[in-house]
Each structure stands twice: as C-alpha cells, then as structure tokens.
C-alpha cells in the first residue's frame, strides 16, 4: 500500500531535511509554532516497525510530500 501526504506550505530547508525524523527536532523556522518535534519521529518509527518506508520530497516555496509505502502483510 502506498499513500502520500502533501501540503503547499513553505517547504523544508535542505539543512533540515536529514533531521526532520529525529525525535524532538524542530527547525529554527518552526520554533514560534506550537509542537514538540515528536510527530514525524513517531510516524517514522511506526512505518519502519511495519517494514515500510517513508520518503520526503520537498521544495522551498512549493511545499512538501511524504510518501509512505507499507507491505501488504503489515
């Protein structure tokens, strides 16, 4: 099963892309918004626990897509 979640927000800076799945990570540009940096780390852990993958595709000023692929037997 493959599904994709996309937005049309500001995108994720290149310097932050390899960090967004780390627990408690918050990009400097998001520190004025509510949150604690756990959401994507939890998604990443659950997807991998079920043998799946999650891929980030983002462009500054154009938004971000996360593509999740889970095996059928998950």
Automatic annotation (TrEMBL):
Known catalytic reactions: ATP + protein L-histidine = ADP + protein N-phospho-L-histidine
GO biological process: phosphorelay signal transduction system
Annotated ranges, domain Histidine kinase: 1-74
Entry EC no(s): 2.7.13.3
Keywords of this entry: Kinase, Transferase, Two-component regulatory system
InterPro entries: HATPase_C_sf (IPR036890), HATPase_dom (IPR003594), His_kinase_dom (IPR005467), Sensor_HK_Regulatory (IPR050736), Sig_transdc_His_kin-like_C (IPR004358)
Enzyme class, UniProt record, top EC level: transferase
GO molecular function terms listed in the Swiss-Prot or TrEMBL record: protein histidine kinase activity
The protein's name: histidine kinase
Lineage: unclassified sequences, metagenomes, ecological metagenomes
